[in-house]
Amino acid sequence: MQNGAEPEMQMPPKRKTLVVEVLDSLRAQITSGQYKPGDRLPSEARLTEEYGVSRTVVREAVAALRADGLVDPQRGAGVFVIEPAPAAVAPFSDVDTDRLSSMIELLELRAAIEVEAAALAAQRRSPAQEEKIIGALRAVNDGAEDSGINHEADFNLHMAIAEATNNPRFVEVLRMLGAQMIPRHGLTSNGGAVSADYLALLKQEHERIVNAVLDGDETAARAAMRQHLKGSQTRYRRLLRG
Amino acid sequence: MQNGAEPEMQMPPKRKTLVVEVLDSLRAQITSGQYKPGDRLPSEARLTEEYGVSRTVVREAVAALRADGLVDPQRGAGVFVIEPAPAAVAPFSDVDTDRLSSMIELLELRAAIEVEAAALAAQRRSPAQEEKIIGALRAVNDGAEDSGINHEADFNLHMAIAEATNNPRFVEVLRMLGAQMIPRHGLTSNGGAVSADYLALLKQEHERIVNAVLDGDETAARAAMRQHLKGSQTRYRRLLRG
DNA sequence: CCTGAGAAATTGTCATACAAGTTGTTGACA
DNA sequence: TGTCAACAACTTGTATGACAATTTCTCAGG
After folding, report:
1. pTM of the predicted model, to two decimals?
2. Distance of CA A109 to CAs A3, B15, B226, Å?
3. C1' nearest to CA of A54: which nucleotide?
4. Whole-angstrom Cα distance, residue B225 to residue B122?
5. Which of A8, A172, A206, B113 is the most buried (most CB within 10 A)?
């Protein structure tokens, strides 16, 4: 960016707009826990009075909060604070030193990364990336009908979603973890055949994730991905016992 | 696909609002490189015509873009594009892919991992791990009083929390990312001194995280860590502008 | 207790008006 | 000609009023 311009002129501290003031105030109250997840914010009318500004200002501030993923306005109902985690994590009282536990740990890390990736993908995906995701989903379903689970196709679907975040870091890390995910799978295909119910469940989970991402529904994408990976965890735990 | 009678209620695909449509369209055009950094967006009046919506809708969309850190509206002048898409276009076509934007991407990934790590740590920490976290926090605060920010101590605090998940995967990945986090810091310490307000804010954020973890408050831990890392993101974005 | 219709509340969108700041043009003047 | 001040034209920021669309509350009536 060397364009031979003058040394940067020091700009006078651009006066805050009313929108920014209201926005900062509301955001502070949300992140400080004054408004908890699920809470309803005061109505636009009340905020208008409270801050002594027009409804225009309040609405733009709320629009910004919504862009930040902090609130979810619902027509006729109100503006609600987003809940980051629908479900608490399982107890996990004891650390088993099995080699399956390694897989469980890995799934836990994947969940952290991919849940967020799904949310970002829902926000930023491009049309081309959408098509890639759809294609990957189709590949997973096609392969599943024939012979159990196609782990490679499954992995490709997850990667397609990670790519749709448009943040290459997610792709890199996930690809790295993928090397540890794929190889060892003598377990699920304990005969090449898994129950039809299980396949149907997996299919439903995948479709729910993809639909949420394509709908741009960040919250649903998070929830769907979390459910999917958490489900995998519990399945592995079950294997761990017997 | 008639799956109407599911145990969980499946929400109908919540109709998109006009604001969301315009927002998505504009964001796509920005992240796809159709509008480059520094470019001026069409005026609100023109966008109003172009999309056939009211100025209210356009303004709320722009407010959302602004919250995303994508544009910077200037009264009297226009709305200017701030940041290129996080690598939506050609792969590394130019070397001017700033280290700063790279840092923002990294922070985004860290947020995904560390937010979950904080939650897990709140649930599973051992007394010894608690002490380690407390010690790390003290080290951060002590170092801060003297000379700006001690990034190494900061990193150690984050690692202590990751260790308290009792999932070694989190530690591994974070340590790997840490190698890219630490080295470059000519920017924040642009004189060795940062504002006292900034240090106080950082201190408060850290303490909020640690308190939540030690309290075993999973939700608060998530929120505090998210706020901390998101705050870092916005700080870097601000640096990116000047 | 349950049901359903209607009122009330709330967000979504439109239209208009003016204030405040920036940019480009113009014209006077040296 | 060159410089600069005033002005006109955009452009964003804010306020106000109105109506539509949707959800929630209320309450009478079975």
Report:
1. 0.53
2. 44, 33, 17
3. D15
4. 12
5. B113
